[in-house]
Specification:
Elements lengths: L2 H21 L12 H14 L2 H6 L5 H13 L6 H9 L2 E10 L2 E8 L7 E8 L2 E5 L5
Antiparallel strand pairs: 1-2, 2-3, 3-4
Length: 139
């Protein structure tokens, strides 16, 4: 008679812990960018690290951005050899120019210590108070 109660008392904390872990495993673990520079830095770092989920968190969600980002994943990132992936992970971000275009748009030009001859400019926009990378305007 007391055995089922014993199992119930033991299972409740276990189930609560599992629910907490599942709830915390989504995008909620990423924090919103405080400003455009923060959004750019987080997106770039995640891209260099190969943390696709985190990079997508800082990406403006529209069909064109999703298509371009998926193309980058399949045509560029997924084709990197393990040595290049490690080199990108170890690279530092080298900000070159952070230009405020207006109150809701910033251009962030950077390079990295692995491929420091290449520069890239990403556009970061504020949508509904949230800073996100607009991948359509990367150059």
């Amino acid at each position: 008679m007391f055995a089922p109660m014993k199992y119930t008392i033991t299972l409740i904390p276990l189930l609560a812990g599992m629910i907490f872990m599942v709830a915390c495993s989504g995008e909620e673990r990423y924090r919103k960018a405080e400003d455009a520079e923060d959004a750019g830095r987080e997106f770039i770092r995640a891209s260099l690290d190969g943390d696709i989920k985190k990079a997508e968190f800082y990406l403006l969600k529209d069909s064109v951005n999703q298509m371009l980002f998926n193309k980058w994943k399949t045509d560029s990132y997924n084709k990197l050899n393990p040595e290049d992936r490690m080199s990108f992970k170890q690279a530092n971000i080298l900000p070159i120019k952070i230009e405020k275009v207006n109150d809701s748009t910033v251009n962030y030009t950077y390079s990295n210590t692995y491929k420091n001859i290449d520069t890239t400019t990403i556009k970061i926009i504020r949508v509904n108070g949230v800073w996100l990378v607009d991948f359509k305007d990367i150059h």
